[in-house]
């Protein structure tokens, strides 16, 4: 079967999720060692996809029309294009068809494919001439912004155990009966109803601040403080784990006037 070239993290990642066995080899730039590349390597290893190194010049030659970002894959060509006569045998009165004429820019073509997918279009008709086609550039443009949710994270002030709300300042005046019936699983229900069966986690604002700081600084032993109408505090320990034992500080009140008079004494005097 004929192989095609997939270039860039989005295009390669999409095929890896959909059909990893169709990927014969992935070529990686050995000079790129950032977190995104490390995570991609881990996914490729887990899927058993063969990996090879290739310098930037070779990758440019393999994917001359697409910014490859240091990753190029060779994969089986999927049967996605049909001749018009073949298509006539498949369509019905209920088939939703998009007809594109004169769309020659690959990125515009990719944008049309994204909209078609979101609208439930089952077939896209394009002429042989004066039209962009299913090139690597068009596929990458379409894949870059596909509305796909792989996981959901929720950040909120309060104490959460196994994604359930135990205590939260937003609901302090809610009766215990209503809290148990409607609030404890509020985020779990919202995620499942909206996104279906995807991984999710509900975390305290302070924990999220600490985790974001640790990721940004690439360091551990980080204290995170989320400032709002109250303060939420979290801590990432020496092993990179969120402790969770500082969450109760989410209910410590913050005096905005105290901060204004000490941090901006001139402005507070003028007022």
Write the SSE topology.
Blueprint: E1 3-7, H1 9-18, E2 23-28, H2 35-47, E3 51-53, H3 56-62, E4 71-76, H4 84-88, E5 97-99, H5 106-119, E6 123-125, H6 136-144, E7 152-156, E8 159-161, E9 164-167, H7 176-183, H8 186-195, E10 200-204, H9 205-217, E11 222-227, E12 230-236, E13 252-253, H10 256-263, H11 265-270
Parallel strand pairs: 2-3, 5-6, 7-10
Antiparallel strand pairs: 1-4, 2-4, 8-9, 11-12, 12-13
Helix pairs in contact: 5-6
Which strand order does the major sheet show?
1-4-2-3
Ends distance: 76 Å
Number of domains: 3
Q: In percent, how helical is the residue content?
A: 25-40%
Order of helices and strands: EHEHEHEHEHEHEEEHHEHEEEHH
Q: Structural class, judged by helices and strands? A: alpha/beta
- Gyration radius from CA atoms, angstroms: 25 Å
Averaged pLDDT: 78
The description of the largest β-sheet is: 4 strands, mixed
The backbone outline, from C-alpha atoms, is extended
> How much strand?
15-25%
Number of H/I helices: 11
């Amino acid at each position: 079967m004929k192989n095609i070239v997939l270039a860039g993290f989005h295009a390669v990642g999409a095929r890896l999720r959909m059909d990893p066995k169709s990927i014969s080899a992935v070529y990686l730039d050995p000079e790129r060692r950032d977190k995104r590349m490390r995570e991609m390597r881990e996914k490729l290893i887990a899927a058993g996809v063969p990996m090879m190194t290739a310098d930037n010049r070779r990758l440019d030659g393999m994917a001359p029309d697409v910014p490859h970002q240091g990753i190029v894959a060779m994969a089986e060509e999927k049967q996605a294009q049909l001749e018009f006569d073949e298509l006539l045998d498949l369509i019905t009165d209920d088939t939703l068809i998009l007809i594109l004429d004169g769309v020659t820019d690959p990125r515009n073509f990719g944008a049309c494919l994204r909209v078609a997918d979101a609208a439930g279009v089952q077939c896209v008709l394009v002429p042989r001439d004066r039209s962009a086609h299913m090139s690597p550039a068009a596929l990458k443009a379409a894949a870059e912004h596909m509305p796909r949710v792989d996981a959901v994270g929720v950040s909120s002030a309060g104490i959460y155990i196994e994604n359930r709300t135990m205590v939260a300042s937003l609901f302090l005046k809610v009766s215990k009966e209503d809290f148990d019936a409607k609030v404890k699983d509020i985020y779990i229900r919202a995620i499942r109803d909206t996104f279906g069966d995807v991984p999710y986690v509900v975390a305290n604002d302070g924990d999220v601040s600490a985790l974001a700081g640790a990721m940004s600084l690439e360091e551990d032993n980080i204290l995170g403080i989320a400032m709002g109408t109250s303060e939420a505090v979290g801590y990432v320990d020496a092993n990179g784990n969120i402790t969770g034992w500082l969450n109760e500080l989410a209910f410590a009140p913050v005096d905005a006037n105290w901060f204004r008079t000490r941090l901006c004494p001139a402005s507070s005097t003028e007022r």
